[in-house]
Give the backbone structure.
Amino acid sequence: MLDALISSQTRIKLLLKFFLNSDTTAYLRGLETEFGESSNGIRLELNRLEDAGMLVSQTEGNKKVFQANTHHPLFSEIHSLVRKHLGLDQIVDQVARRLGDLDSVYLAGAFAKGMDSQIIDLIFVGDVDKLYLLELIEKAEGLIKRKIRYLIYTPEEFTRLPHSSNEPQPLLLWAKESYEVTKLRSGEESSEVTKWRGRGWRRGGGGGGGGGGGLRSYEVTRLRGCEVARLRSNGVG
């Protein structure tokens, strides 16, 4: 999908790197090693994306570290395009939403680091019908033209998993409608959320109950270390 819209493969790699997981940070030399390309071409594309306001940067020692600008008005659209390009929306539609007692699905491995791969690593949390999951996975692989590798945990097992500080946390890809979130961000606004459900939300600190005009669809992602419900149908305000 992105290949038809963007001719620069380096730019596509940078969009995948920064906009799949907005927690991702990277600097020029690290990207040079990861991409296997010359620093000049990567620097040119980084500068273009920063000049367009799509990336922000800060200096850490002698390194200029880049990250996606989550306040950019096109951030949500680019994030959605990246998901579609990788086939993640197909996984949600063809697998996650068809399984019965499933709590959540996480993206792990190379994709959690913002790196493209022909193998998608997933973590399923819930009481999963393994035979039905295998059937759905095989169908999804045919649609997205990538292999899917997965692990299954009960919610209790998943909460006990050790986490290495040297590895990125799994990226939340999908969760059932009733889900605890810690912060909701929409454009420049950031509000504490105590509980979010399929057709409304309640903000912390008082003011404004649930409802909100009806929430018809949503996606769940991570934003600066916080799990975020990004509302599609109705704005937040």
User: Anything to note?
Assistant: The chain is about 30% helix and 30% strand. Residues 82 and 155 are 28 Å apart (CA to CA). Helices lie at 2-5, 9-19, 28-35, 39-51, 75-86, 88-94, 130-144, 155-159.
